Amino acid sequence: MAEPLVVIDRVVKRYGAETVLDRVSLEVRTGQVMVVIGPSGSGKSTLLRCLARLEPIQKGRILIDGVLSAKGTEDEGPAPDKTGGHDIGMVFQSFNLFPHLTVMENITLAPRRVRGMAAAEAETQAIELLRRVGLEDKRDVHPARLSGGQQQRAAIARALAMRPRIMLFDEVTSALDPELVGEVLKTMRGLAEQGMTMLVVTHEMGFARDVADDVVFMDRGAIVERAPPDRIFSQPAEARTRAFLERLLEREGGTRRER
Amino acid sequence: MFRFEAVIGDFPVLLLGIPLTLGLTFAAFVVGTVAALPIAVVRIARIPVVSQVALAWIEFFRTTPPLMHIVWAYYALPVVADIKLDAFTVVTGALACSTSAQMAEIFRGGILAVPRGQWDASQVLGLAHWQRLWWVVLPQTLRLILAPSCNTLVSLLKQSSLAAVIALPEIMNRGWILASETFRPIEVLTLVAFIYFVLTWPLVLLSAALERQSSLAFRSD
Question: For burial by CB atoms within 10 Å, which of A64, B37, B51, B52 has the most?
Fold first, then answer.
């Protein structure tokens, strides 16, 4: 447990003149579940996208298990190693399943084409994953025939098929009807219990409270506060965190949607 | 007045032009479409110089008439560059070039219409750029462009009649000759039009059906 699995080191991300991430540093240890909260536009989704290497960063570096994964385009130094890029799985708000493929084909595509896995092996693995997310009867169905919650669980299975060491969840329940949120959170909860390292951007405070090891509050491109959930929710150290949480609780009317 | 009975006996002569018309259309469509895909991909990729060449190609063939390309390739190329091509190759080549420009734009629209999230998801899964294009984006693109491609085929079939100007005996050329032999151009050209109608109408129906179908299924969001 010496070296953190994820090291985000003074990362700067800009879109044109606008700074979206302003020298963000964060460490995540193996098996940790980190929930990132904050107002929209605070840079939390961008942070995940940078981790997934979907966005280049201008300054700083990102290490995965001690190996350089991304580095600032404005910084000197050796380029990151692009060969070992399958450590990270990501689940999106809009599911992004491949609509022309069945659930089974969605899950087996990357293992087969990227890892060169044989079809039979990839399917055996996919069946196991579908059982884990409770979709074993949907293997030959196209995504359009699934509910939002089922699509998102299929997307989780698809990400897991590449056996990532870190899973990123980017507001994965925000596009779901309220009654479907629970089934997705349950799947994520199960994943956390099995020891998966997770970074979760969410507005589900119930999930943060119960599952997170640490909660990170971001605002205007910077990390304002990081603390275990019981502390950040009961006695946040920063005024901005308190103001955000109060607004959030007001809006939700104190109800807890999950479970 | 019109006297169709005077030319109806020569109708089979016109029909004999059908294989050549269809051959020209098919060859130009296949060559043009196969060429269009890399042109579209390069055009989107924004590679310095190469993308500009692709754009120039597209714009040139979209803005100049294929009749000009045919005449130029058939009559000027032998003089200017000492390249002599037979009439079939000239027409196929000229129509393939303008088809490649048309289809490249159709491909481009279809590729760009696939949501950004499809690229993101396949990238995080570790698929290389060409794999994302081939396994994820293009299958969805094809579904989107079936109907417009079918329209391109329809107009190509009609444009193949330009081959008449360099004496390829397809339907239109046979019509011209027949018209001058019988002195009945209106009747003959009406028959010619009828043949084109019979050939293109099923494609028009197919295009409409494809359009209905693609507006229905296969969207996840």
Answer: A64
